[in-house]
Amino acid sequence: MGGIIWLASYPKSGNTWLRIFIENLFRNTIEPAKINDLGVVKHNDNSPALFRKIIGRDIDNITDTELHQYRGKVQSYLANGNESVFVKTHSALQYYEGLPLIHLEHTAGAVYVLRNPFDMVISFSDHYKISHDDAIEAIAAPSHRVNTSKQGVFQILAGWSNHYRTWFGVDNFNPLLMRYEDMIHNPIKTFGRFNKFLGLPKNPERLKRAIKNSSFSEVSRQETMVGFSERSRPDQKFFRSGKVGGYKSILSEAQIAKIINAHDELLFEKGYITKSGKPKF
What we know:
The protein is α/β, with parallel strands linked by helices. It is built from twelve helices and nine strands. The strands form three sheets. The chain has a five-stranded parallel β-sheet, sandwiched between helices. A two-stranded antiparallel ribbon has the order 4-5. Strands 7-8 form a two-stranded antiparallel ribbon.
């Protein structure tokens, strides 16, 4: 029996890195998988091509309200197979205009990638071409959304804290949590938990090879050489730095304090700040 295994995250939190790891893990080749040829995780839940396929016509002049009516059919189409399918999403697990953004009846499971908002907001700012201050405001807004464009059907992101709470607030639904920082500092253990979540047999060499072939240095090298098809604009560098703590030389103390003030509960709960409210990273 099939179903969707969601790869969920707030934007710029490591979702694409996880997808490239999965590609390398399943292909299990000596050479790294090409970042512009991802076939294992090839679906986004807001893909305009998928909506066009299900609706049967161009979607340029269709309202968001009407588009939203088709989300269930799109997700049913993705889940309609004998095997589970990975699907990337940045949507919050909540309702919009009376209908869910994520249809759990078509869901087999979920993995949630969480990244500290201090670093994430810098990449978020660059990706959406807005100021750091505007990005900090956006990730604190409980109704924040990304509008429909040629790149994707609209998504309700909510705020950074709200987004996480929606995915971990459903009875009898337990996504696997992967912290971006653990993916960097303890990849064997963290990606090993992902393999166990999928029920894959232990294979240390295969795991290490997939981690190496999806490393930041490798994907950044490929992007420099041939570009990356998922860039939102030509001048963007998708794989920017990948470091933990890079925000310290970029954000002001006031900006850091504003992030903490908006998300202190979840920041402390997930080990990003101390009891006194100081960042750990």
